[in-house]
Amino acid sequence: MKMTRNISLLFIAALIFGLYSALFTVNQTQQALVLQLGEPKRIIQKPGLSLKIPFIQDAVFYERRVLSLIPQDAEEVILADQKRLQVDAYARYRIEDPLLFFQTVRNEFGARARLESIIDSSVRRVLGRETLASILTGERETINGSIRDEVNSSVKSLGIEIIDVRLRRADYPQATSQNIFNRMKSEREREAKEFRATGEEEAQKIRADAEKTRTVIVAEASRQAQELRGQGDSEAIRIYAESFGRDPEFFAFYRSMQAYRKSIGESGTSMVLSPNSSFFRYFNDKNGRDAE
Predict the structure, then answer these.
(1) Mean pLDDT computed over every residue of the chain
(2) Rounded CA gap, 120 and 89, in Å?
(3) Number of CB atoms found within 10 A of residue 77's CB
(4) Is there a contact between 98 and 158 (Cβ–Cβ < 8 Å)?
(5) What is the pTM of this model?
(6) Band of residue 269 on the pLDDT scale cut at 50, 70, 90
(7) Dihedral (C-alpha) 158, 164, 167, 169: value to the nearest 10 degrees?
(8) What is the pLDDT at residue 181?
């Protein structure tokens, strides 16, 4: 009786385990491929609970959602105008045929390796027909579409559908960028030298014009000063003449005082003259009469 109970329990446990192994769930974001001893038997793309033969069949799950592929490193490509660019492209794809996908690449890791190679080749071929100007303008969308179509035609045999391929980055290589920077720097330095030379030339012209104007102004001022000085001397001579005509003795006295100031003033000049000289007549007599 006890043995019969144990056998029944074992049978129930085996049945439960068998049912557990036979049942599997396919989520809404997944699709499944049932394999029997490694050979594909059927595809399940509807979400829900499904059955398989325990211990003989296995289920492999694939994503139904759109997947992204972002290459790790940028690739260098040569354009139609012989320009070199570092290009980084990314792709969005979907597993369209799980059976074909399993037969060709097995899993997403294998698909990634194949896709990277195909996308790289397509990017090189398409960009090899384009120029730098077309990539930097509105034609870039057309180029992205051409790459997408070419990649799509190549991955149909993998059970994959390419949703989109885009150029994420398109830059000059480091060496080319440095050369361009050096050329730009040299060009700016040349322009700066031209501006400085032009400025120095203009400065010299301005200084020359200013010096010319200064010379003219100084010459005109000197001329006017000479005229005024001549007029002053003429006026002084006229006044002296009038003064001499009015009072000859005062004029003689005034001229003698001027002669005294200039000759024996503060200059320390030594003079050897006779005391009876007419030069000292106002020293001997206030009226300037010669001494007897």
Answers:
(1) 81
(2) 8
(3) 20
(4) no
(5) 0.58
(6) low
(7) -100
(8) 72
User: Which regions of the chain carry the CATH code 3.30.479.30?
Assistant: 67-177
Q: Which residue has the tokens 């592929």?
A: 69
- CATH code of the region 67-177: 3.30.479.30
What integer pLDDT is reported at residue 151 of this predicted model? Answer: 93
HEC profile for the chain? CHHHHHHHHHHHHHHHHHHHHHEEEECCCEEEEEEECCEEEEEECCCEEEECCCCCEEEEEEECCCEEECCCCCEEEECCCCCEEEEEEEEEEEECCHHHHHHHCCCHHHHHHHHHHHHHHHHHHHHCCCCHHHHHCCCHHHHHHHHHHHHHHHHHHHCEEEEEEEEEEEECCHHHHHHHHHHHHHHHHHHHHHHHHHHHHHHHHHHHHHHHHHHHHHHHHHHHHHHHHHHHHHHHHHHHHHHHHHCHHHHHHHHHHHHHHHHHCCCCCCCCCCCCCHHHHHHHCCCCCCCC
